[in-house]
């Protein structure tokens, strides 16, 4: 092969090595499918040594081997490194008579290799990756049937590599589709501005909680929150400022409420919280914490004066016998009582009120 051969160019070798890497075969464990091919090659060619090898940047690595007892050798003593420089079968009847290999330490010393036959392992786009080869301790030849079988087995090695690659690509596609499905489901269930559950998703979560309570879970509390005079924020400061307020309020809610509590954006400036395993009194304490943090935390601190807001809140109980529509309506009525009483306050369902039916 001359120096201007594509195999002698840096770009070609870089692409060949990348193609080999793309198969993800290097340094993988032994596999019966490849071990069986090596055994059959050894039997058909009546050779004590049989190897599936791949030519890496500076080593020859064996996916499967019989008769050698090692998984890799340095590239500078590799006979297969020469075999990949030409298409088809590469046969050396007597290594001691070939000036390229006569002084090879594998020929002059242990294991004293005298015969080599290698069938090219070639990628679909024509890059030589390695060989399926058989070796012997004495000079010899292969019959035509043995030559055909060796190349046919090499083709099976590549067919198996292609199948493995196709399975990986299919698995990756399935993972990508599952991720996309999860993302779509999440987007369908969340409010794009705040990242909270949207109204539809929150109602589904409420139904799940009621079903749990019907099977014995403790009652919960439902809280509806409305940001007082929020329209004024949009009208005077603009909708972008209004969006910033909603996002900041969401952050405060995540600080105030428990991780188990379910927070949703009911619509506009209204938020809804379901507090599992909580009484109305316990929910009222959480609402008071929210009032306190709103009183001391500016929603917008880059304006003068900083913007503070208040909230009106209604709270009712949620049990396994609750009718969700009636419970939501009741919470909404309590919220508007808070507004009618001057805003910035919480109105709770009276203790002892019979559950909604």
Give a description of the structure:
By secondary structure, the chain is an alpha+beta fold. The protein is 44% helix and 20% strand. It folds into two domains: 6-169, GAF domain (Beta-Lactamase), CATH 3.30.450.40; 199-348, Reverse transcriptase/Diguanylate cyclase domain (Alpha-Beta Plaits). The protein has helices at 10-22, 32-45, 80-83, 105-108, 144-189, 199-214, 230-237, 239-256, 280-296, 324-340, and strands at residues 49-55, 59-66, 72-74, 89-92, 115-122, 128-136, 220-227, 262-267, 270-275, 311-318, 346-348. The strands form two sheets. A six-stranded antiparallel beta sheet has the order 3-2-1-6-5-4. It has a five-stranded mixed beta sheet with strand order 8-9-7-10-11, with helices on both faces.
List the defining traits of the structure above.
357 residues, alpha+beta, Beta-Lactamase, Alpha-Beta Plaits, six-stranded antiparallel β-sheet, five-stranded mixed β-sheet, 10 helices, 11 strands, disordered N terminus
Radius of gyration: 37 Å
On the 0 to 100 scale, the average pLDDT is: 90
**What's the name of the CATH homologous superfamily of the largest domain?**
GAF domain
- How would a textbook summarize the main sheet? 6 strands, antiparallel
Q: Give the N-terminus to C-terminus distance in angstroms.
A: 90 Å
* Tally of helical segments: 10
Query: Which parts are unreliable, with pLDDT below 50 for 5 consecutive residues or more?
Result: 1-7, 353-357
Number of strands: 11
In total, how many domains does the architecture comprise? 2
Question: Quick one: overall form?
Answer: elongated
CATH architecture classification of the largest domain = 2-Layer Sandwich
CATH topology descriptor of the largest domain: Beta-Lactamase
Helical residue percent band: 40-55%
Order of helices and strands: HHEEEHEHEEHHEHHEEHEHE
Into which percentage range does the β-strand content fall? 15-25%
Instruction: Quickly name the level 1 CATH class of the largest domain.
Output: Alpha Beta
């Amino acid at each position: 092969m001359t120096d201007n051969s594509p195999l002698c160019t840096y770009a070609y070798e870089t692409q060949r090595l990348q193609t080999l890497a793309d198969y993800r075969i290097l340094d993988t464990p032994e596999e019966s499918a490849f071990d069986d091919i090596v055994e059959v090659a050894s039997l058909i060619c009546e050779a004590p040594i049989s190897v599936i090898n791949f030519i890496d940047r500076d080593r020859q690595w064996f996916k499967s081997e019989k008769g050698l007892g090692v998984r890799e050798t340095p590239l500078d003593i590799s006979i297969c490194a020469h075999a990949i420089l030409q298409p088809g079968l590469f046969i050396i009847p007597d290594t001691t008579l070939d000036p390229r290999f006569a002084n090879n330490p594998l020929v002059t010393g242990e294991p004293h290799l005298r015969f080599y036959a290698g069938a090219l392992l070639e990628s679909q786009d024509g890059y030589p990756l390695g060989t399926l080869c058989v070796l012997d301790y004495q000079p010899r030849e292969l019959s035509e049937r043995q030559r055909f079988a060796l190349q046919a087995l090499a083709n099976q090695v590549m067919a198996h590599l292609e199948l493995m690659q196709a399975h990986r690509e299919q698995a990756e596609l399935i993972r990508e589709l599952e991720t996309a499905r999860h993302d779509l489901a999440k987007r369908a269930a969340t409010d794009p501005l705040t990242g909270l559950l949207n109204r539809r998703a929150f109602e589904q979560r409420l139904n799940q909680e009621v079903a749990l309570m019907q099977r014995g879970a403790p009652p919960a509390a439902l809280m509806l929150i409305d940001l007082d005079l929020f329209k004024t924020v949009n009208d005077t400061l603009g909708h972008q400022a209004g969006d910033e307020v909603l996002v900041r309020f969401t952050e405060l809610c995540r600080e105030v409420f428990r991780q188990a509590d379910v927070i949703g954006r009911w619509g506009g400036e209204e938020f809804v919280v379901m507090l599992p395993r909580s009484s109305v009194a316990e929910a009222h304490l959480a609402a008071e914490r929210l009032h306190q943090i709103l009183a001391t935390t500016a929603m917008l601190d880059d304006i003068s004066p900083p913007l503070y807001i208040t909230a009106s809140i209604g709270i009712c109980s949620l049990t396994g016998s609750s009718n969700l529509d009636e419970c939501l309506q009741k919470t909404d009525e309590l919220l508007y009582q808070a507004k009618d009483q001057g805003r910035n306050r919480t109105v709770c369902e009276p203790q002892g009120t019979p559950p909604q039916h």
